[in-house]
Write a structure and sequence with these properties.
Blueprint lengths: L4 H23 L11 H22 L21 E7 L6 H9 L8 E8 L5 H11 L3 E6 L6 H10 L6 E5 L9 H12 L3 E8 L6 H22 L11 E4 H6 L10 H11 L4 E11 L5 H21 L1 H5 L5 H31 L6 H19 L13 H11 L2 H14 L17 H18 L10
Parallel strand pairs: 1-2, 1-4, 2-3, 5-7
Antiparallel strand pairs: 4-6, 5-6
Helix pairs in contact: 1-10, 1-12, 1-15, 2-7, 2-13, 7-13, 7-14, 9-10, 10-15, 12-13, 12-15, 13-14
Length: 466
């Protein structure tokens, strides 16, 4: 699916409206009478803080027996067909390892197919795939021209036309799975009646530096929040890598949107509006590499922020309709205020403080949000987990995790401003995967490609990382 210029104009208008409303709301308290400037922030902190504590943190501990994966299927049980799908561009460093990992999965070989879409690779990815096909009959390769368009969504839509299996497991090229993941994941999805399931994302290179360590904490934090939102009748979301999709449900939702920079977040809302439930599974996880540099993180998080806002702009009428229940609307409202409105309010509040030479007024709201985030980080990282070890919790780690999350207070306002002022152009930018823990080599590679990405002037869908 694609949107024309009018859709882009509507997104710009909605971004401008959001920016104006948040700006006025952040500036207004600085002209309130003394003693009342903190009332709006205290009110928001109480309402949203209480909601978050009840629905996200407390509910995360109330895990029923239905949330535990069932035992592996017996040899007499019929296993549904599974298509593992990977969109790959210039992934020679990791694609061979991925194929061998899929070959090691415990699942009937006649019911497992790996599809790799070579999306115009300029490196040795095509040659590596050709060699692998000679050894692995379950591997099928499709190729697209480099300028085919649609980014990762276009690649996934191409392969979607070829699939016949009941389930589609989407992976990034650097994804890693435990051998028993399908034995546990697919029966859990079947018995739970889920249309899609998102595996917890675990970072394989958390020990490389403080940035990767913080991202490992963020992934645990995100999984705890997702489970908590879902437990209270709220909304769970797909995260690209490690998402299991029922093929019929995906087709009913219209496939992947080729006019979005985050196919997973967009698809999450379309599943929601179609009444197709999404589940979240803590164990087993899907493993992936974290980015190693601030420059790479900045590019990645801009794209995530833009895609996150874009889906709210695109699907506002449906989100406000009777297609969603009260609990879902309440959850989405709280999430939108905390994730997108709070950072813009905080920025406007800071500007108001400088202009009026008064004290900031939104700090109670921000402090409560960050404090609850710290509690969620501790909750996730202290929870038993398979896969790579989660960072040990101590005052330094908790402080690092909270400080790291402050980057959203910069990314969200900047992206909102860009969306309000600049026309959208979809161009290609990808996250590099080197298949190891060599921070220096990846940083050099990222620095070498940063100029080309900056010249593109915009964000883009990535093959291999959502």
């Amino acid at each position: 699916m694609a949107a024309g210029g009018s859709d882009s104009d509507r997104r710009r208008a909605k971004a401008a409206l959001l920016l104006a409303c948040c700006g006025l709301a952040g500036l207004a308290p600085h002209w309130f009478p003394p003693g009342r400037s903190l009332v709006p922030a205290l009110t928001l902190a109480t309402l949203l803080g209480g909601y978050s504590l009840r629905t996200v943190l407390l509910q995360a501990f109330r895990r029923g027996p239905s949330e535990s994966p069932p035992p592996p299927p017996s040899p007499s049980q019929v296993c549904p067909s599974v298509d593992v799908v990977v969109a790959a561009r210039d992934e020679q460093a990791v694609i061979g390892r991925l194929v061998e990992r899929i070959a090691a999965l415990r699942w009937p070989r006649e019911r497992l197919t790996l599809w790799v879409v070579d999306d115009g690779s300029d490196d040795r990815t095509p040659e590596v795939l050709a060699e692998l096909q000679e050894r692995h009959p379950f591997l099928k390769v499709l190729r697209r021209p480099r300028d085919a368009g649609g980014g990762k969504s276009g690649a996934l839509n191409l392969v979607l036309q070829q699939l016949t299996g009941r389930w589609m497991l989407v992976l990034d090229a650097d994804g890693a799975l435990q051998p028993d993941v399908l034995e546990r994941l697919v029966p859990w999805a079947e018995t739970g009646g889920w249309a899609a399931v998102q595996l917890r994302k675990a970072v394989t290179n958390a020990q490389v530096n403080l940035l990767t360590r913080a991202q490992a904490m963020e992934m645990a934090f995100d999984a705890v929040i997702q489970e908590g939102r879902l437990a209270c009748g709220g909304v769970a979301e797909l995260r690209g890598n490690g998402q299991l999709l029922r093929r019929e449900a995906l087709l009913a939702a219209g496939g992947f949107n080729e006019d979005t920079v985050t196919d997973d977040l967009d698809l999450s809302f379309r599943f929601l509006l179609e009444g197709l439930p999404i589940g979240v599974l803590w164990d087993p996880p899907v493993q992936e590499e974290a980015v190693l540099t601030l420059h790479a993180l900045w590019r990645q998080r801009q794209r995530w922020a833009e895609g996150g806002l874009q889906r709210f702009f695109d699907y506002t009428p449906g989100l406000l309709s009777n297609r969603l229940g009260f609990s879902q609307k309440l959850d989405l409202t709280a999430f939108f205020l905390l994730q997108y409105v709070l950072p813009v309010l905080a920025s406007a509040d800071l500007i108001g403080s400088l202009v009026t030479r008064t004290a900031p007024s939104m700090w109670p709201f921000s402090i409560v949000a960050l404090a609850l985030s710290g509690v969620a980080i501790v909750t996730g990282c202290r929870r038993p987990a398979e896969g790579p070890p989660l960072p040990a919790m101590n005052p330094f780690s908790v402080g690092l995790g909270i400080l790291y999350l402050v980057h959203w207070f910069v990314v969200i306002p900047w992206v909102t401003l860009k969306m309000a002022l600049l026309p959208k152009r979809l161009v290609w930018a990808k996250t590099l995967h080197l298949g190891g823990e060599h921070g220096e080599s990846q940083q050099q590679a990222e620095d070498a490609t940063s100029g080309a990405d900056q010249e593109s002037g915009d964000l883009a869908p990535e093959a291999g990382q959502a």
